[in-house]
Amino acid sequence: MAGIEITSLHMRYPDGTVAVDEVDLSVGDGELFVMLGPSGCGKTTTLRAVAGLERQTSGTIHIGDTLVDDLPPGERDIAMVFQFYALYPHLKARDNLAFPLRAEGLPEPEVRRRVDEAARMLQLGPLMDRRPQRLSGGEQQRVALARALVRRPRAFLMDEPLTNLDAEQRADMRSQIKHLQGELGATMVYVTHDQVEAMSLGHRIAVLNQGRVEQIGTPMEVYDRPASLFCAAFIGSPPMNLLDVEVADGSLRGQGGLALPVPPGLPDRRALVAGVRPEALEVTAPGADGAVRGRVVSAEVLGDEIIYVVDCDGQRDVRVRMAPTARFAVEAPVGVRHVGGPPPVYDRDSERLVA
Amino acid sequence: MGTVATYGLKKAFGEVQALDGVDLEVPDGSFFVVLGPSGAGKTTTLRAIAGLEKLDAGSVHLGGRDVTGQTPGTRDLAMVFQNYALYPRHTVFENIASPLRVRRDSSSDVATAVDDVARLLHIERLLQRRPAQLSGGEMQRVALARALVRRPHAFLMDEPLTNLDLKLRVEMRTELTRIHRSLRGTFVYVTNDQVEAMSMADQVAVLKDGKVQQVGTPSEVYERPVNRWVASFVGSPRISLLACHADEDRLVGAQGWTLPRPRRTTAETGRPLLLGLRAEDLSVERRGEATVEGEVYGLEPLGDHTLVDVKVGTEMLKVKARPTVAGRPGERLSVTVDMDRAHVFDAGTGLALTEAAR
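^ inputs. structure came back:
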C-alpha cells in the first residue's frame, strides 16, 4: 500500500471549462479518504486523473514515491470500483474474481488462494458459483469489490460504488467496506455526493465545490466547524440553520432576539451568519428564557427523533431536532432557544468561517 | 375536495401481480403517503386511482362515488410526476395557467389563480421565464404549481421530489406540508423514501408485492410494525433482527445470548423468533440488566450521533451512541437492551408477536 500526493492539480477542457482548479490533496498510506461534493465539483475528474484515465493540464500526482503522470492506467498499480459493476456476464463470480489474476499470469494455486481469501472477506460463499445475472445488485457490487481486492494494488479508487443500491444494501455495504479497509490497511480514495456516506466512511473528508477544495478534515471536524457556508449547507441532514446574527455589547443575537453564545475571537462585524445545527436548538414553551418566538410549521416524525420546522420572528423554517417524546402541535406558538457551545460564525460576504 | 378509496384493486402485468387486492381509504383533506420499495405497486395504485390503468378487479371511489369505469378526464384529479413535463416554448405563467385555459376560465380569474399559487410556491419572480431558464428545483415547483392551480377532488403525486438534491428535498418537504395545510386538499403521495413518508404524512400505507402491509400514522408504523418487513423498511438505520426462541421467562439467542422475555409476548415456547431492536433502544454507554455481548465491527460517525456496529456471533446490531463514543474493531463490549421497547416477530410468518410499550 502507498499514500497518494496530489499537487496543484489543474484540469481545463478545450472549451475552457475548469473542472479541477489547483487541488492539493495528501492521502496517507492506509487511509480511507473521501472526496465529497455535488455533481460537477471535480471529485470524479480528480479520481480519474489519479487512475490515469484523464490527463491533467498541470500539476503532479505521486502514488507512493512514484511520479505517475506519464504512466498509463495499467502501470499505476491501482484498482478502481465504479458505480456500475462491470462483471463479465458469461463468467461465474469465482472466475470474475480470478480473471485479473490469470491475466497477470499468476500461478493457479496462488490465484485460488487469493480468490478464496477475498470471497471469505466479503462473505461471498454461496454466490461464488453463480453468474452475474443470478446475483442481486448488492451481490454484484460485492463481487466487483472482491475482484478489486484480489489484485492487492497499492491503492483503491472508488467512484460512487454504492449509488445504484437501495438504502438497505447501501448501509450494509458501507459498514463492510469500512471494516474491510481497516482489516487490509488499504489506501482508499472514495468519491461520493452523499454526505452520510462520507461521514460514516471517511477517516478524513475533502469537501469539493466548483473544482476547489473547500475543506479537509475528519468527519467530526467538518460537521462541527464547516469551513464555509457551502460546507455548512452541504453536510448534515437536515442541514445547519444559517442565521443572520449581529454582535452587540459582546453578545451574539439572531433575528427576533435569539441569544447565542459568543465564540472566542469573534470579529466586531455586522454582516455575520451563525451556523446552528438542529440539535443545538430546542423547542420550548413560548416566552422561555433566551428564546425567540415562533410557530410550528411541521413536525417531521422520524421515529427516533422529531424534526420541528418553526417559523420564528425574523427567520422562516428554523429546523430543530428533538427527542421523539416531544409534543408540540403544528401551528402552536412556541419558543426556540439555543443549547450548548458557541456556533461557528461566517462572514456573509466572503462566506468563510471567521470564528 | 374529498375522500379517495380503493377496494380490492387487482392488476397483473403478464406473470407479475402488480396489485393483489389493494384497499385504501384516504380521508378528506389528509396527506396520505403510499410507501414501498420499487415494484411494490405504488405507482400502479396511483394510476388506477387516476383512471390510467385498466383493472382486473376492484373499484375506485372518489367522494363516495364509484368512478371505476370512468375516463381520467372526468375524475377531476391533478397529478404531479417525478418527471415534470413542462411546455418548453411557454412561459412559466402559461405553463401554470394551462389547466385553467382548458376549462376556458376568464383571463382575470386565470391571472389571480396563477398569482396565488405562484406566491404559495415562491416563484412569483419566475413567471415570465421559460423552462430552459429554470433550475431543476424551480421546474419542480412550476410543475407543482400547475397541479395546484386548480381545485381538483384530490392531488396525486408520484415521487415528485426524487430528482432534487438533498438540500432542496428537505426544503420542499416543509413546503409541501405548508401547502397542504393552506389548501386543505386531499394529497395521495407515492414514495420509496421512508424519511419523506414519515416527515410529511398524516397517514402512511406501507405497500409490498401489491399488498397493503399496514396503514397508520408515522409513529404507529415505526413503533408498532405489524411484521418484520414493515419494521425493516421503516426507520433508519434499519432495525436489527436477531434469531432466537422463547422459553418460560427468557429469550435465548441463536448466538448464545439470553435476555429477559418481553412482558407482552404471545410467542410460544420453543418457536423460532426474531428479536427486533431499534438502534436507539440499544446502548453501549448505559449499563443495564439486559445485555448482549459482542465485538465492535465498526463506527459510523453521522454528526449528531455515531452508529456502532456490534457483531454478535454472525449477526449484527446497530447501536446509536453519542458522537464522542470510542471503540476499535475487535474490541469486546456489552450492549444494553431496553426490553420494554423490543419487538418480537415469528421467524416463519414474520408477524409481530408483541406490542412494544411506548
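Residues 56 and 177 of chain B are 35 Å apart (CA to CA). Helices of chain B lie at 42-50, 92-102, 107-120, 136-148, 166-183, 194-200, 218-223, 228-233.
thumbs up if we can close this ticket
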